[in-house]
Amino acid sequence: MFLFQLDSCRVVKEFATIIEKCFDFYSMSEEDTTPLYLPHWIHLSDAQQGWANLSQLCPRPWRYSSPEELNNLPLWAQHHIYDGGGYVLDLGYDKPTAIRMMEGVKDKDWIDRRTRAVLLEFQVLNLNTNLMSIVTYHYEVLPFGFGLTYEKIDTIKMFNFQNLSYSFYLTCQLLFMLIVLVYVTILLFRLCRKRYAFFRRIWNWIDIVQITSASLAIVFYIIKVKFMHDSIQALRKNPFVTVSFQFAIFWTEVENAALSLALFLATLKILHFIRLNPHVQILAWTIITAGKDILSFCALFGILFVAHAHFALLAFCSSVFSFSSFPRAFASEFELSLGNTIHVVEINDVNRVLGSLFTASFMLTLAVLLVNIFVSILDINLHDVKDDEEKVQEAFGMGKFIATFLFGFNRKTSAENTQK
After folding, report:
1. Tell me: the pLDDT tens digits for 86-137?
2. pLDDT digit string (tens) for 13-62?
3. Which of 72, 207, 399, 412 has the fewest CB atoms found within 10 Å of its own CB?
């Protein structure tokens, strides 16, 4: 839980007789980091600071824990980025213990007006699949009293060292490292041979970025395994202490980002290599020929997209966070078009009539009207391109040239050997 300091904002004179205390928006610089409190958030006097039984007078929920003690990173919720420290309440491993602990601090005003965020974090391990999910629920309180919930679920693969699947995974990791090492050797050989001319081609720079991202992914994987191992060992050593997996989650996300960049560049290079394929050339000429029609289609698509975003913003902005602003409404519409139906459930819970109307209108417009129009535009222009015999012959002539260049010598040699 994160607390705010007293009198973090100033009350204007006109309301001084009505409002006694004012609490501003959350800020790390104004967070209350008092080491010890008595229950009901009573400050310790100077004489009490030297008492030997402070751990009994100030239980765990009333003692501040720093981010270093909790092994936490700053937490990014919907409204603010919170420091990794705070006042911690351990709920135990079963429901009766958790209820008893929460009732014990509820009667002592553990959550009061100074509270700006309450975080509930727990881990769930599925031994059948070796998947562990770290679930974090955020409850944020704004200065005017509005409370908002936000959940974050991160899943990490846990491997059993005696399992066959882990051996296969480890083999794939070693193979990936070997491929990266070979690719680095090839790049260094090309660099030594071409010297400064190596940096003049843009595709060489793409190779450098790709191999760098792949190498960083290996480093991030090793760091992730190290933090995961440390967290599990701390949990095994004492199951009743607060153990954080935030560093393991962070390095998992960084590893995924590095792998995503390497995969994107690999896909880009594949598209570059197949650009001379006859069918790919015909498709490119079709898109170029249909440029004006596609531009008109994009204008229509944008108008309908903005109209539905505006409708969702007016109907659900006050109740559904996914449609609380124009950028969020746009992002939610893109997710809905890709098949994510979680937003459909959210808007139906608020208003079933308007929610069903929005969903049916959006999906009908997107799937039936716009997709068919786009396919029709490509189909008409594809026939026009195929009717142009010069372009078709040029496209397939390039394919024959590549086949002859790559395999013609071998075929000629094989034919001569056959005649002999």
Report:
1. 888 888 888 888 888 888 888 888 888 888 888 888 888 887 777 888 888 8
2. 777 777 777 777 887 878 888 888 888 888 877 666 666 667 667 778 88
3. 412
Cβ 77 vs Cβ 138: under 8 Å: yes
92, 314, 331, 292: which is closest to 322 by C-alpha?
331
Three-state DSSP state, 36: strand
Alpha helices in 119-201 (DSSP H): 164-194
As beta bridge partners, residue 3 has 115
The CA-based angle 270-276-277, given to 5 degrees, is 85
> Which of 116-125, 195-204, 278-287, 351-360 is predicted with the least confidence, judged by mean pLDDT?
278-287
The burial of 217, by beta-carbon neighbours within 10 Å (0-12 exposed, 13-18 middle, 19 or more buried), is given as buried
CB atoms within 10 A of CB 352: 10
Report the candidate in 189, 249, 194 with the shortest Cα–Cα distance to residue 224. 249
* Structure tokens belonging to residue 258: 């590095």
Tell me how far apart the alpha carbons of residues 345 and 342 are, in angstroms, rounded to a whole number: 5
